[in-house]
Amino acid sequence: MNMSLEGKTRRQALTEFREAEILAAARKVFGEHGFAASTIEMIAAAAGVAKGTLYLYYSSKDEIFWNALSSRFREMIACGKQEVDRAEGTEAKIRASLRVRFEFFRSDEAFMRMYLTEFGQFCGPGGLHRLPVRELYTESAAYLAQVLAEGMQKGELRPGDPLETAMALMELTKAVFAMRFSGLAGQNPEFDGERFVFNLFWNGVKA
Question: What's the rounded mean pLDDT across residues 90-102?
């Protein structure tokens, strides 16, 4: 019985590892070529598996795309929660949340490209994943909204809707990366996007 449970655990671990490899490869392909130009064959080649193997895990290119994007987003949420919980005080918690988001975008260009260039088409209004992404966005903003709500109660921050304020910070972060990504903000090597976003947000919400 123990051997059976142990074997099942190993199979689960192998499955999760293989899925992670496939999704990482998918992010690379989608990030380099965009959704429309990417193919199942390209993803399979990047993952080092046969095309048929992909269909053991996912039924379509669209499903691969959504899982590649949402799984990385959930990693960012989990890491953000950890760092926010470790920080002390409203200002430090907001800085921690921002630091995690900027580190994820800076360290994973494929994820950033997917998020910035394909997100609206599949996850925005009218998109195939509108409802799931609303839940994901709400989850992403919820832990920061709690921090903002506490800051408002203490009189440290201006009163307002904590969840909407948290989402505004998320969108501001995305906007700064979008400008840098598109070249609209120039290529000033001294520009610190994380500090810029924090100062702009903090000066707007603090009491």
Answer: 95
| Residue in the structure block whose two tokens are 């969108």 | 171
How far the first Cα of the chain sits from its last, in Å, is 61
Please indicate whether residue 169 or residue 7 has the higher confidence score (pLDDT): 169
pTM of the model: 0.82
Residues 6+ apart with CB under 8 A from 19: 57, 67
CA distances from 165 to 45, 63, 64, 96, 159 (A): 42, 31, 31, 16, 10
What whole-number distance in Å separates Cα of residue 159 and Cα of residue 205?
Answer: 8
Residue 206 forms beta bridges with which residues?
157
Q: pLDDT for 147-184, tens place per residue? A: 999 999 999 999 999 999 999 999 999 888 888 777 66
For the chain, list the domains and their CATH numbers: 2-205 (1.10.357.10)
